[in-house]
């Protein structure tokens, strides 16, 4: 599995470099995830707030179109929040289902105006950890879990604004088409907001 992740990551970052009309750019990015699970076979849950962090490339094909491959660590899952008798959230009692991935999105990037771009494309996601944390606000409480599929095919889309100095901000939505658990209508749904810098 680790070899597969490495091969796809290298291929994604090097994709179409030979045909690019301008210099390939590389950068770093990170941000916050608002992750949830959706589907007919899943009940209510609270969004898990986590993070994403990784590397990004941009391969210009023209003045208005680029390919943007990325390799990201993405914290996902959801929160199960215990309630007291008055139906008030007890944040010290919440339980996190932590489902983390290495994401390899390969996005088409269309510049709408100078600096502002629309991005969309497939995302190849590899599960790296899955556990239930009964004490997310403390050390300990982790219980290993192995129900989710190891690989997920998804789609990512969003907007980005890149400043002239290479700094950028972006918002994105990710949806997993693969059933989270085999033959069950349960899917990852993640909003990401982040910043980055192109060197």
UniProtKB/TrEMBL annotation:
Superkingdom of source: Bacteria
Coiled-coil annotated spans: none
Signal peptide as annotated in the record: 1-20
Chain ranges of the Outer membrane protein beta-barrel domain: 20-181
Swiss-Prot/TrEMBL keywords: Signal
Protein name: PorT family protein
